[in-house]
Amino acid sequence: xxxxxxxxxxxxxxxxxxxxxxxxxxxxxxxxxxxxxxxxxxxxxxxxxxxxxxxxxxxxxxxxxxxxxxxxxxxxxxxxxxxxxxxxxxxxxxxxxxxxxxxxxxxxxxxxxxxxxxxxxxxxxxxxxxxxxxxxxxxxxxxxxxxxxxxxxxxxxxxxxxxxxxxxxxxxxxxxx
Length: 177
What we know:
Strand order of the largest sheet: 2-3-1-4-5-6
Low-confidence stretches: none
Mean pLDDT: 88
């Protein structure tokens, strides 16, 4: 059996401070590493192995959430096969910005896999301002592929989100039987 290797571009978008960079750091290091604000775009590459048959390199474009950088997002979105659409469950305004983030990526990438990600799940009991049901409603309204909540601090659902994204990209691109 020959191991196949593939490369896919993934963009991670959402308002500044929602936890996009810490989610990527948790994935790449296995640890919670607080991050300073992203300027422009950070790039990471992570290998995900699927069923001992396919190694997928995810080229992860972690896009800055500040409004002044959004002019660049249409170009960065081109060629993306996946998008993590992120918000902070403790900050309603980050949830309200999701329409804009979705539209920019959807208008510039060709049929990407979308996963809605509610960040900072570890703070749900004390500071939640966006109910889980609102995330589900958004996912259904925009016909997104999946919706998960995660915590970069605890690592809950972190790896599963990227594995789910990878499998869905492979399915959509008809790589998996």
